[in-house]
Amino acid sequence: MFRALMFAILASFGAAAVAADEHPVVTYSKAAKFEDVRDDLKAAIEGKGLVIDYHSFVNKMLERTGKDVGSAKKLYLDAQSFVFCSATLSRKTMEADPANVAMCPYSMVVYATAQEPGKVHVAYRRPWRPDGSAASKAALAEVDSLLDSLAREALGLK
Asked: Does the pLDDT value for residue 19 go beyond 60?
């Protein structure tokens, strides 16, 4: 009964928030060229008026440090992440709960694995706190919606 009640309450904040505790990482994929999807993700982020604060080359780091940690296994064709924030949404989430500062900045990754180099993935971590207030959950659901729309746009899945 409690679970059903919680589901009904959370449903009012959007479907993305309901499953966040069960699926903390959202991944969308399609057959494409890595560079095209990477550029489309960057354009989607910037197209919303957001500024990318940091562009991380995850694959290069793994290749550079592999021998230092005793592994030369090639995991990715390429993997990169973009770190950015939304002043409007971040303020809203932090006004709802100052602890939501831990959700900022946002990070989205684009990657293609060494096993499936023609399949490109865009992923992000859901901003979710099961212990948050209703206002906090609603604000974080807006962030989740933004990240989800950016991932879908980058892959042409609108």
From this structure: no
Pair of tokens at residue 60: 């290069």
Residue position matching structure tokens 């959202």: 26
The pTM assigned to this predicted structure is: 0.83
First to last CA, the chain: 35
- Transcribe 132-156 into DSSP letters: S-HHHHHHHHHHHHHHHHHHHHHTT
CA distances to 52, 124, 131, 138 from 156, in Å:
20, 16, 34, 27
E-state strands within 1-158: 25-31, 51-56, 76-85, 106-113, 119-125
Query: In this structure, are residues 142 and 92 in contact, taking their beta carbons and an 8 Å threshold?
Result: yes
Which pLDDT tens digit goes with each residue over 45-82? 999 999 999 999 999 999 999 989 999 899 999 999 99
Q: Interhelix angle for 34-47 vs 134-154, to 10°?
A: 130
Token pair 């009640």: residue: 5
For 17, 126, 127, 134, 143, the CA distances from 10, given in Å and listed in that order, are 7, 15, 14, 9, 15
Cross-strand partners of 26? 124
The enclosing H or E element of 72 equals none
d(CA 86, CA 4): 33
Complete domains list, the chain, with CATH = 2-154 (3.30.310.70)
